Amino acid sequence: MTSAAKDGLNGRKGRTARTARRTRDFLKAFFLTPAARSITARTLVKLIHSMLRLHPVALAAQFVGMVSLLGLFWESGMSQWFLVVWAVLGLIVIYMSLLFARNFWRDRERVARVRIWIRRWTWLAFGAGLVWGIAGAVFPFPVSGVTQVTTVAVIVAVTFASWPVYACWMPSLTAFTLLSLAPLTVAVAVQYSVSRTLISVIIVAVTVFIFYCGRRLSEMVVSSILTDAENQRLVLRLRTEIHRAQNARRAAEAESAKRARFFAAANHDLRQPLQAMGIYLDILQRRTTPQTAPVVQQLTAVSTSISTLVEQVLEVTRMEFGRVEIHVEDVAVADVLGQLQEEFAPQAAKAGLQFHTATRLPPDATVRTDRQLLLRGLRNFLTNALRYTAEGEVVLGARRFDGRIVFGVYDSGPGMSAEETQRIFETFYRGRAGMDRPGSGFGLGLSIVKGLAKQLDWKISVGSRPGRGSVFRIAVTPGGAGAALPGGRPARRALETIRAHAALLEDNPTVREALAATLRSWGADVVDSGTPDETTLSAFLAHAEEAEGTDGKPFVLITDYNFGEDEPTGIEFAARLERLVGRAVPTVVVTAVAADLIEADLEELRQADGERPEKMPQVLQKPVTPDVLNQAVAALLREAEAEAAKDREASEAPDAPHADGSSEDATEGAAR
């Protein structure tokens, strides 16, 4: 054989081998379960679940088919023994199928034993196909015409009703379909007639249709199972993430509550000694001598510095917790400038600087913001400007720019570099000027302004040149023209004499002694206590009755708010005292607890119909200065005296006249 012939023969062998390999791969891929390499044991178990859902329909179809063929061929002359044996085989297959279903559902280890169950299922499909293959090979031969067509129709109908059950597992479908229809096709085709050939073609077409539909159904079921499994994994993952998020939220809430408790404790514990220190320093200033005056001034400066630091730290903490009270209103620009002019002009003059305000805005120009917080932010700017400006001037201006009203604080100080201006609003950052002047600040004032800006939608900015000075700006949303409420800083007043009976309830001994000494220095008769118990209540009641029955002096209660767990609050104590006295008692609450929390507690008492004072007490935040406390007590006493005067006038007023001008007494006399 020539080399060319050998090459041609080898080429044909190679093409034949490739064709055979491709055919084998196709048949393997077609007749096996889709994605068989990727499905798990749990997926196979779910496949069997899907098959068993349709199992009753297939078994019912097979039973009805057997009964139909037995009835059709029992009197046809075919051996009845053969019919009985064939029927018994069919019933055995049905029984084994039912037994398979029962044992499968009872098997708790079916996932681990899934391969055994798959093999059993394939053998059941093989047995069912064999029973109907025997029927297809034997029953069509001895008959013809309508009986033969009926036989073919019954066998095809049973196969057609059963294939969805076996389609979920392609090997079982292949075994059942080929065993049940192939013998029938051959038996009909060998009769060599046009009609029989046509029937054979139809059976072949049905076989192809069953394989095609079975393949598609198997793909759909497997895809559905895999999708369902993926969805379950996603749901499980989602639940896990939700659980983690909830745990994280609970942890954050617990941490926030812990911080809030720490803040409340620090707020109270830090303000108590500062309160006592301020009161004692005020008393010491009134008794100072020329020799001790410098020392007292230094102590006052140190006390002011510590109070400022504590207040700024607590303010930063409040802003971080979102606990800053905000009351937005229309604020007059001229009012803000005038108040700050009054406050800072004397300070600037004392430092040898010029200070003035400037604006070209209309007199009725307003901004929409919180008045006190705006003043606080501008005060921080002005305090820094006066602190770091050695000579020259400081100017507070206001103008309209880019749809907002911009307040600017201009100074002729040392200025800042570009790097400093980028960090100047950071917490505890002081800049080069602050580092050169120890004790000039703590680097918190500007960070507080930044926090206020976030909460009030201000736009803050800074501009500076080394050696030329700086400008700090706050851009605020304009308000309605002429809509500002009257405001301004109240004029400073001299301390008023407090000729009253004062009941003082304060659990801190140092603060209690300082407040008692201060009240006595104002002329008040003071009785004090540290616990809100029944003994204190009786003592205060006696003091109040003495005030009402002897010298006619008014009675006022000055109390802390928080006395610890299982103890009444200052407001609850005031309510009990009012109930015993029988009238409203002027009350001042001096506390470190925020006023909004006190108002919330009072609202809870009101909703719960609990014991509460007739009026909301005057709340002062520690540390409170003596002049503020003096003004608060004096104002309450004036208000109480005015109400008492109205009550006396009402009780002493003559009876109202009738429409005809006569009095009620005259009318009664005439009647008598």
TrEMBL record:
UniProt cross-references to SMART domains, sorted A to Z: HATPase_c, HisKA
Ranges where the record places region Disordered: 640-672
Keyword annotations from UniProtKB, A to Z: Kinase, Membrane, Phosphoprotein, Transferase, Transmembrane, Transmembrane helix, Two-component regulatory system
Catalytic activities: ATP + protein L-histidine = ADP + protein N-phospho-L-histidine
Positions of modified residues (4-aspartylphosphate): D560
TM stretches of this protein: 54-74, 80-101, 121-139, 173-192, 198-214
Gene Ontology molecular function terms on file: phosphorelay sensor kinase activity
Main enzyme class: transferase
PROSITE patterns registered for this protein in UniProt: HIS_KIN, RESPONSE_REGULATORY
Skewed-composition ranges (Basic and acidic residues): 640-658
Annotated Acidic residues bias: 662-672
Span of domain Histidine kinase: 265-480
EC number: 2.7.13.3
Pfam families according to UniProt: HATPase_c (PF02518), HisKA (PF00512)
Source domain of life: Bacteria
Keyword Amino-acid biosynthesis carried by entry: no
Classification via SUPFAM superfamilies: ATPase domain of HSP90 chaperone/DNA topoisomerase II/histidine kinase, CheY-like, Homodimeric domain of signal transducing histidine kinase
Domain Response regulatory: 501-637
PANTHER family attached to this UniProt entry: HISTIDINE KINASE 1, TWO-COMPONENT HISTIDINE KINASE
Protein name: histidine kinase
Organism of derivation: Sutterella parvirubra YIT 11816
Lineage: Bacteria, Pseudomonadati, Pseudomonadota, Betaproteobacteria, Burkholderiales
